[in-house]
Amino acid sequence: MKAQYIDEASKTIPEQQLLINMVSRRVRQLNAGSRPLIEVEPGTGLADIALQEIAQGKIIIAQDLAVAI
Question: How many structural domains compose the chain?
Fold first, then answer.
């Protein structure tokens, strides 16, 4: 994971444990075949994709769940 992506996502979700849970859930979704919600360069790690999606507001919290919009 790139520190830059962590910093950007932390501005959107300042609570560290919640951010970790969101990234973890999204990585599982991507591993299961979900498409990224952002434009990604080849070779980008799944955690980096998840962090970028969070930072760009593509994933929000709804009733204690991370939901892709």
Answer: 1
Are 62 and 53 in contact, with CB atoms under 8 Å apart? no
Cα 15 from Cα 17, distance rounded (Å): 6
Query: pTM (2 decimals)?
Result: 0.86
The domain of 37 spans 3-68
pLDDT in tens, 1-57: 799 999 999 999 999 999 999 999 999 999 999 999 999 999 999 999 999 999 999
CATH code, domain with 56: 3.90.940.10
Reading the block at residue 45, the tokens are 């790690």
Q: In 3-state terms, the chain is what percent helix, strand and coil (to 5)?
A: 50, 10, 35
